[in-house]
Design brief:
The protein is of the alpha/beta class. Helices cover 28% and strands 19% of the residues. Helix 4 links the parallel strand 1 and strand 2. The longest helix has 13 residues.
Length: 391
């Protein structure tokens, strides 16, 4: 469970302007193109020209389906994210949604954090924000809340503090197929790190490429708007995360993206793309020691079986050996109270589950699981199967 903040309800400094560009962050050509694409060109998901941002019809956990049913149809109709991005253990948390668009995920998460939690959505596209803000009162009444636990900020994901978001003010940051739209990914990660509390998590799904993209692909406006032209080479994510200060990214899910558009595919050539979900934590570096952990259960939706990432799955009361990196994350994050920790060589070591080799390459994960299509059970940002159950 997440701790209360001493700041305002939204995590936004009330004396600060809510528009990043008003404080000196100037729109690049890329920003203006993305605004045009998502604000004017796209009117609903049928206008998308590839399937990179279309979630396959896969089952979604029942409690999330129920939460989504309460989101107003006008909000859902203007939603262009890839599936769902919902981490575990959310009750009472303060969450920031990067590139919140029409607000669908914010209103869904509003129900999962409860009235004591809070969701802040930030987006640079006025048309999307207008839709999101229009339905705040509607949703609070629908959820039975006495006061809003959702707010929306106009600004850039590369300039969170300039948009008025306070440093060390969020428990979790989510992002759904949005980071690829930014021309400065390192700055996005650095800003996210800055506004996260110690122990906080960046849990996000995005599109990654099999190698660094050519200038022709990166300069193609439609491919950029379709979440392909700005895709990072997955190895660059690992490097950028380390440079910013995050723990090494933990790969959760992955699935191959097929474009299914002949004209765009000709431009892309032999480049391959994957949608993947990673979790990055703001925790101390280099001090963790391997240990044994026992999952106590109790996290809503994953009471008996908690898949932390593609390497580690924790079953209730089962002794599992973890490396120092995972041990540091579990002991310094919101998950600390859900585990019992004991040093190696403890009384139950002989029956402990040994750690598996880690996988950080999303293409390798897809290949290993033998799932070669967007309907893969491994999920990712373009599949609703990327959704772990959550609180």
């Amino acid at each position: 469970m997440c701790m209360e903040l001493s700041t305002g309800a939204s995590g936004v400094c009330q004396i600060c302007t809510l528009t990043a560009s008003a404080k000196g962050f100037v729109d690049s050509t890329v920003h203006m193109d993305v605004k045009e694409y998502y604000g004017k060109v796209l009117k609903n998901t049928a206008d998308l020209k590839s399937n990179a941002c279309v979630a396959p019809a896969k089952p979604t956990p029942a409690f999330i389906r129920q939460a989504l049913k309460k989101v107003h149809p006008d909000v859902t109709a203007r939603y262009y994210g890839c599936g769902l991005v919902v981490p575990e253990c959310l009750e009472g948390c303060r969450i920031l949604d990067l590139g919140s668009g029409s607000g669908r995920d914010c209103y869904m998460l509003s129900q999962l954090v409860g009235e004591k939690g809070h969701i802040t959505g930030i987006d640079m596209t006025e048309d999307q924000l207008d839709i999101a803000r229009t339905y705040v009162d509607y949703h609070m009444k629908e959820f039975g809340y006495k006061k809003p636990n959702v707010s929306f900020v106009q600004g850039h994901i590369e300039a969170l503090t300039e948009a008025g978001l306070e440093k060390s003010s969020f428990d979790i940051i989510i992002s759904n197929c949005v980071v690829n739209l930014s021309p400065d990914k390192k700055r996005v990660l650095a800003e996210a790190y800055s506004v996260l509390k110690d122990g906080g998590e960046l849990y996000f799904s995005d599109v990654y490429s099999s190698r660094r993209l050519t200038d022709e692909i990166k300069n193609h406006k439609v491919l950029w708007g379709e979440c392909l032209g700005g895709a990072l080479w997955w190895k660059d994510l690992l490097q950028l995360a380390e440079e910013v200060g995050f723990s090494p990214p933990r790969l959760v899910t992955a699935s191959i993206i097929t474009v299914d558009n002949k004209e765009l595919q000709e431009v892309l050539g032999n480049f391959k793309f994957v949608s993947a979900t990673y979790r990055l934590f703001k925790v101390p570096k280099g001090n963790g020691k391997p240990c044994q952990v026992i999952y106590n259960g109790g996290i809503t939706g994953v009471e008996d079986n908690f898949q932390f990432d593609c390497q580690n799955t924790f079953k209730v009361d089962e002794v599992v050996e973890v490396d120092g990196e995972v041990a540091t994350i579990l002991t310094h994050s919101r998950f600390a109270g859900d585990f019992t920790f004991q040093p190696l060589g403890g009384p139950r070591e002989s029956c402990g589950v040994k750690p598996k080799p880690g996988i950080v390459d999303p293409f390798k994960l897809v290949h290993q699981l033998g799932k070669q299509g967007p309907g893969s059970a491994t999920g990712g940002c373009c599949s609703t199967q990327s959704v772990p159950c959550c609180k």
